[in-house]
Design a protein that fits this description.
Layout: H1 2-20, E1 50-57, E2 67-74, E3 82-86, H2 88-92, E4 98-101, E5 115-121, H3 122-137, H4 153-163, E6 186-188, E7 194-199, E8 203-208, E9 212-217, E10 220-225, E11 230-233, E12 237-240
Helix pairs in contact: 3-4
Length: 241
């Protein structure tokens, strides 16, 4: 009975997402826009250290289910951002999963508009940047990529959030792969404000002040965030109460 109800509920979510017009990109990847949307600071003007985390709906059909996330880092006095992200095709062709480029932090992800989900600047960011760069260099899944349940781009960003709790990183429930833990079954929450238990990103629970209470079932996140008065649903994302 419970299994049937769970299946019906998730099918209902799929129907809701399609009918509500969740944005995905159906055009060819080579012609999809990668232009910035104008919300990131100009590094030539803003001279202090900056760290930003963004997420955007994944390309093509994957966008109905989840987002792609990345981090952009600008040390003090630097004239550009370095954007770090995990990209699956790099692994398929024998390269490293982690990519670094100078693409704008707020650039579209193959047509999908990004959303800023975490940021800090100044001395706090300057102090955290060496730790973040070390964690990027030491990312243990640099030779692996799996869309579901991970490791993927969201696994990578969640890992960096644990290294820099100053970010108070609260990844959206659509960040499939964020609960795939780099090692073991127990870890700090990505925000650093609580803890989580996860079985290979397929089954788990997270309790934290920033994220609230989340339950992971087959890689899908259900939860409630008392701090922000919202509920979290797979595919749909966060719904404010």
């Amino acid at each position: 009975m419970w299994s049937a109800g769970f299946l019906v509920f998730n099918l209902g979510l799929v129907l809701f997402v399609f009918l509500s017009g969740t944005h995905t990109t159906s055009s060819h990847w080579s012609s999809a826009s990668r232009a910035p949307i104008g919300i990131a600071p100009d590094p030539r003007i803003e001279r202090q250290a900056i760290v930003q985390v963004y997420a955007a709906r994944a390309f093509s059909w994957r966008g109905y289910f989840g987002v792609h996330s990345w981090i952009s880092i600008k040390p003090p006095e630097a004239g550009h951002f370095d954007t770090y992200e995990v990209i699956g095709w790099r692994v398929r062709y024998g390269g490293n999963a982690v990519s670094v480029s100078r693409r704008a932090p707020d650039s579209r992800w193959f047509g999908s508009e990004p959303r800023l989900i975490a940021e800090f600047r100044g001395k706090e960011a300057e102090a955290a940047i060496p730790r973040l760069l070390t964690a990027i260099q030491d990312y243990r899944h640099n030779d692996a990529y799996t869309v579901w349940p991970g490791p993927n781009s969201n696994t990578f960003i969640a890992h960096l959030g644990r290294v820099a709790p100053e970010l108070r990183l609260d990844l959206p429930p659509t960040a499939v792969g964020k609960d795939f833990l780099p090692s073991g079954f127990w870890a700090k929450a990505p925000s650093g404000t609580g803890y989580q238990l996860s079985l290979s990103g397929l089954l788990g629970i997270l309790i934290a002040w920033e994220e609230g209470l989340e339950v992971n079932l087959l890689g899908l996140t259900y939860g409630i965030d008392v701090k922000d008065l919202s509920i979290k649903l797979p595919m749909v994302g966060r719904i404010g109460l």
